[in-house]
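Good morning,

Both structures are done.
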Amino acid sequence: MNVIETHRLVKTFGGRAAVDQFDMHVNQGDVYGFVGRNGAGKTTVMRMLAGLAAADGGEVRVFGTDPKEAGTSRRIGALIEAPGLYGSMTAYDNMMLKALALGLVDPKDKVRNLLAFTGLSGVGSKKTRHFSMGMKQRLGLALALLGDPDLLLLDEPLNGLDPEGAREVRQLIMHLNDQRGITVVVSSHVLEQLGKMATRYGVIREGRMVREMSAADVDQECSDFLRLDAANPTLALAVLQERFPALRFQSMPDASIRMFGSVDAGEVGSALNEAGIAIQGLYAHKRDLEEFFVEMMGAEYRG
């Protein structure tokens, strides 16, 4: 079941399409890693999913209906951009203010439980303007959880955190997904942390969805490979596919060939020499998560 589904979604600002023909699919129970460069349109998409901004075209459905509808909006918890805290108030008072705005009945126990869950029960009368970045992000997460949402939209919740703070927030997100069954869409530049919790991914570039994939797909494509640069790449690919049928091959926009699987560079070189194909370069490459996503986010990537 798709918790979120968008079709050809469009949002323009000053005549420029910040989101353009955008298709997105988030399944129930996903931790959906939403990846893209600054300015790619991530926050704009998140605001439309939360019902905080209207689309100029296309369709967005959350739990099968418009996210701005009252019944749907109560099922969505959002932390988009800054948490929006009142700096002169305590964490407890910030929480109580939102709880009353949501119309929660007798919310004191709920507020205390969420502050304890996010590790903020001991902050006492400390004003939030004196909170560290990590404390503010955890309080923002607690605020997003006040209405017992089925869906969390978290826009850069790891931004500005030190490694320990990022780990704490990541563990909270994983607990919410695993123990409470909350579907989570989380955008982040901290790919190392994202890779430890995401079950599916979507990559946005210049307002368009480049690709959606599972964590298993990413693991497979982040595997090490042999890179080949040959004088005749088309013929080289045909020769190698016939000689090594168990390998997976990928032709790149720069005309190089990537080979995935158990293969010896010497055997590849011998096969090409026998076919009379000149080798310009052949070397093993270790690929990581950051490189994989940067290729898709960058202008050189063609999908």
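Second structure follows.
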Amino acid sequence: MGEEDKLEDTEAAVDGKSKKALKKAAKDAEKAAKKEAKKSTGQAEGDKEEVDVSAGKYGTFGLLQSKADDKNRNAIFTHIKDLCPNIKDQIVLVRGRMHTSRAKGKQCFMVLRQQQFTVQCLVNVSDTISKQMVKFASTINKETIIDVIGKVSSVPKEIEACSQKLVEIHIQEIWVVSESKSQLPLLIEDAARPVKDDDQEGLNIKVNQDTRLDNRILDLRTPANQAIFRLEAGVCRLFRDILTNKGFVEIHTPKIISAASEGGANVFTVSYFKSSAYLAQSPQLYKQMAIAADFDKVFTVGAVFRAEDSNTHRHLTEFVGLDLEMAFKYHYHEVLDTIGNTFTEMFIGLRDKYKTEIE
């Protein structure tokens, strides 16, 4: 009797296990059927999600080899400084560096920099822009050179962080031309940030001078340094143009000379084959020679070297000198008037032609 009860319990356990297995199998079959039905009825939608609609509109350029049959050879680029509401809705091609980027949901905001000019760019998921393209844009390293094709659009509110405050670019294509390293010794936005004694934001971020000089190429990309060099070029250009219009002749004087040209400044001695020579600390002698040679009015723009051991910024051992020399007819006030008018015209030229750099 006891053996029969034991046998019945065993059979009941087997039947119970079978019921659980069958129940689980039924659930799995139901899930598989639903999955298959969804796959069969929504095949078009599934294919649409898997296909990259932006294929061929983003990626990395190969090595630029200046081939004769390059289709991009005649491409017309638009400078960032020329982006304004006047060209709203136009499709432009812009090349610049990735300044900053910020991905948010299905869109990515980027700031593209070209020299000291910046513009905001936007790429977001749409019927023509895929998630893959947005992801690709968000992973581009800072300072990477990229080509962007997009439509110029006006913005409802000024973009304070960019030089082009009234427009942005809605990206249609984006290509990496030259990729930078992911880790840079300094960030351009940090190097460009003005140093303030009372930092209310509490960031207190600054780049040391040693770091700047060790990585001078990166440091020169900041808007301030870009503006300084352009202003320097502007001063020399205005100096030349103004004096040329006044009848002056530009001359180029020697910089390696056999004897000190002035007695008021120390000179650098250099080895000149089997003898010694000196770096010119002034073009004065040669200007006077030109006047005596009936040039009447001359000027020169060139390097000046002075061996003055000084730690102040007003006594440089090397600098670019702007010198003029002229003969006057009756009174030395003729020279003073010429110098005064030259300075006045130079300042007016800087104000009118280099307003962006000064600001």
